[in-house]
Design goal:
Layout lengths: L1 E6 L5 H9 L3 E6 L15 H8 L3 E3 L7 H10 L3 E5 L7 H4 L6 E5 L11 H7 L4 E8 L9 E8 L6 H25 L31 H10 L6 E6 L6 E11 L11 E3 L4 E4 L4 E9 L5 E2 H6 L8 E3 L2
Parallel strand pairs: 1-2, 1-4, 2-3, 4-5
Antiparallel strand pairs: 5-6, 6-7, 8-9, 8-14, 9-12, 10-11, 11-12, 12-13
């Protein structure tokens, strides 16, 4: 089947590679414009690079819904458009271009976690399972009828990054199956239950700040949910200077075995660092102090004065 792939982030990369290697005809790839980072260096753009290496036409409009990009897409004559983390709102003229419309790969079990950050919110909520849903795109946010679903358990120590990469690979066979069914006319559409919908909007960096009054279990989920972005962080106070920003990379919730009694109170022992929470205790494993490389919590606290009453909390 002749198709256009639309994606920007790494989530869609395994699917794009599989489509390029399949019997389907990838007529073009639609992706966001190049972005420049610090020092005006261009960020790596693996979707664009993969398409260009395969000799596929790459389109990068700032607004895909304008007349010129829509005309360019029509000239490619796709029968279906496959999207995965593309990053633009798609309006009805876009959705009408292909005979089979546009389908999207979404990293949740819809109607749960509609929106831009479904993996983050599923990990943070302590969900036991998640998956990939492929649905037909309609103007309402992630609300179109479902064409295929695959489920997977969430591991007890999985981070958002771990789960993102695993789900990206799981999307590949499901995408190929749905395309076969669309081509054969055997695809079945299942309406979503809008009343059961939950939402996972985009997050700001401030989402990462740890609330030590939460339970140890909730803080553990928060740390894993914010890896690798925006990362969990807190502020260390206990000396005469300004509180120090500390990123928490790994932590483990404990029921017993440490002495802190209040949220944010720190107990530094020879081989471990414990922090009190609103319910239970967190054992810190790895941290990244501002301006320094990542290190174990024990290494970090060995470099601090042992006679201070160190504490985590808001700045």
């Amino acid at each position: 089947m002749r198709l256009v792939f639309a994606g920007t982030g790494p989530f869609g990369l395994p699917t794009l590679r599989s489509l390029l290697a399949s019997r389907h005809d990838v007529a073009g790839v639609l992706t966001q414009p190049d972005r420049s980072g610090p020092g005006r260096h261009r960020h790596a753009h693996p979707i664009k690079e993969t398409a260009a290496a395969a000799g596929v036409t790459v389109l990068q409009p700032a607004n895909v819904n304008r007349p010129e990009p829509l005309d360019e897409l029509r000239d490619l004559r796709p029968e279906v458009i496959v999207t995965a983390a593309y990053g633009q709102i798609l309006k009805q003229p876009f959705l009408d271009i292909a005979r089979h419309g546009a389908i999207n790969l979404h990293a949740s079990l819809l109607p749960k976690y509609r929106g831009a950050a479904p993996i983050h919110y599923a990990v943070r909520a302590g969900e036991s399972k998640t998956g990939i849903t492929i649905f037909r795109i309609v103007p309402a946010l992630d609300a179109g009828p479902m064409l295929g679903v695959v489920e997977t358990p969430i591991g007890p120590r999985e981070t958002t990054g771990d789960l993102h990469d695993r789900l990206a690979e799981m999307a590949v066979p499901l995408t190929l199956r749905v395309l076969e069914e669309l081509e054969a006319g055997t695809a079945t559409e299942v309406a979503q239950d809008d009343a059961a919908a939950t939402f996972a909007p985009s997050m700001a960096k401030t989402f990462g700040e740890i609330d030590w009054a939460s339970s140890a279990v909730a803080i553990d989920r928060h740390v894993r949910a914010t890896q690798p972005w925006p990362t969990a962080y807190t502020f260390l106070s206990g000396d005469a200077g300004e509180p120090r920003r500390v990123v928490v990379l790994e932590a483990e919730p404990l029921d017993v075995g440490a002495s802190p009694t209040g949220p944010g109170e720190i107990d530094v022992r020879k081989a471990a660092v414990f922090v009190g929470t609103g319910d239970g205790v967190i054992r810190l494993a790895r941290v990244k102090p501002a301006g320094k490389p990542a290190m174990t919590a024990e290494e970090f606290f060995r470099g601090l004065s042992p006679d201070r009453a160190w504490r985590f909390g808001p700045a």
